[in-house]
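Title: [Solved] Leucine-rich repeat-containing protein 51 3D structure

Original question kept below for reference.
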Amino acid sequence: MSKQDYMNIAVQEPPLDYSFRSIHVIQDLTSEEPRRGLRPLRHSKSGKSLTQSLWLNNNVLNDLKDFSHVVSQLLEHPEKLAWIDLSFNDLTSIDPVLTTFFNLSVLYLHGNSIQRLGEVNKLAVLPRLRSLTLHGNPIEEEKGYRQYVLCTLPCVTTFDFSGVTKADRTTAEVWKRMNIKPKKVRIKQNTL
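Solution (posted by the thread starter after getting help):
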């Protein structure tokens, strides 16, 4: 199967759906049956799913230990993963493992326990990230929450299920100039 054939199939594939399974640890995915949707999942000859979407919402995950390893056991092409739904879990931070999936375009993290707004900085390395949710986390209460996220992640076009407008971008830029101090550039002085 060529890469183009795979991409055409994977885009049309339903998600690998482990939502509402009371999953406590990522390793449980290897022994848990995914939910069945209206359309059956297609698998490779090795038995791995051909999808690009992984839904883990409405579980009790508090970390993503072994996430990459488990995902590589479940998906034929884990590097093509484009949509991860981790909403309504117990995550307190954005695990750096999520930043290793460079094709990620949709990331749902709403309804967790993410405490620090600075956690969003980790996602800036994801070149294709277009849709992000973070509402329902403690960080939502921080002043400038929406503006901070939008100026940190300028490629995001949908944030918390709302389209990002030109006015949102302008407001975020103004907020950034007023609230984020530029890094000082140190000039090395040659000593004689």
